[in-house]
Write a structure and sequence with these properties.
The chain is an alpha+beta fold. It has 9 helices and 7 strands, in the order αααβββαβααβαββαα. The structure holds zinc ion. Zinc ion binds next to loops.
């Protein structure tokens, strides 16, 4: 019988061997954790196996913002140069997308670092003109680490019509967008008035329709803010189609109770 190697045995792996091993481990992880989580873990596995130093947090955040922006742009949620994303880099700094660039074509170095008063701490591009709105969110919500503002066409149609998304129609939307998605009264884009209109809603909500403008979604991390943005636009598309077909049926109280039980700890108070 082959002796089991000592736990501290040095294992030399060529980079391609390590990558192949990481891939196999990822497939196993995909069975246990689901494919998305496994793919997310793959780079860390490769680094661990090849002994490469872990990616610095600032670099990781910049890379993730660029990836998220590309995804949202590919989905058609940020036409032209519209939309802006930010993440909390530290308790006293955020990284925000620059003004005037197509967000799907950014480089990680294009992101702008701001302090919590809006002072620019990096050279180069100007920050998004909506930076006051982002800082307004971080100032009120210590649990939020990512803010995404987009112009998704169907959700923006509800914003333009002044119709909140406040009815329990789709299970995923109930879980992600609870308690509801309110319409925030119009304030000119980039204005302090827009921030003032948003503030009273911030404590209890994570997704917002900005009247005659677009949407804002918050997240404990960037992935959650992206997920909420996608869920909001999907809900709006489905509702629009369902209303053309005669109107949506609502989930019942019993359905909502079941949802709460299946995802304990997740609010599901859509009314
Ligand atoms: Zn906008």
């Amino acid at each position: 019988m082959t002796p089991f190697p000592e736990p501290n045995a040095q294992l030399e792996l060529a980079p391609d061997q390590a990558e192949s091993l990481a891939h196999r481990l990822t497939l196993r992880l995909a069975r246990d954790l689901g494919p998305e989580e496994a793919i997310r873990l793959l780079p860390a596995l490769v680094r661990a196996l090849t002994g490469a130093p872990p990616e610095p947090i600032q670099d990781r955040l910049r890379r993730e913002v660029v990836q998220a922006a590309r995804r949202l742009a590919d989905l058609g949620l940020m036409a032209g140069t519209a939309g802006n994303l930010s993440v909390r880099e530290s308790p006293s700094h955020i990284l925000i997308t620059p003004a005037g660039l197509r967000k799907g074509e950014m480089h990680p170095d294009d992101l702008v670092r701001l302090d919590m008063q809006g002072n620019k701490l990096s050279s180069g591009l100007r920050p998004s003109s909506e930076f006051r709105m982002h800082l307004g969110v971080y100032g009120v919500r210590s649990d939020v680490n990512a803010v995404i503002h987009t112009h998704p066409p169907h959700a923006t149609a509800f914003a333009a019509a002044g119709i909140p998304l406040d009815r329990p129609v789709l299970a995923e939307a109930v879980l992600l967008l609870a308690p509801k998605v309110p319409v925030i009264p119009f304030g000119a884009p980039s204005s302090q008035q827009l921030v003032d209109h948003l503030k009273p809603w911030l404590a209890d909500h994570n997704a917002f329709l900005l009247a005659n403008h677009g949407v804002v979604c918050l997240g404990r991390d960037l992935a959650e803010a992206v997920q909420r943005t996608e869920a909001l636009e999907f809900l709006a598309r489905v509702l629009l189609a369902a209303r053309l077909l005669g109107g949506e049926n609502l989930l019942t109280h019993a359905d909502l109770r079941g949802l709460r039980q299946s995802r304990s700890g997740t609010p599901a108070d859509f009314r």
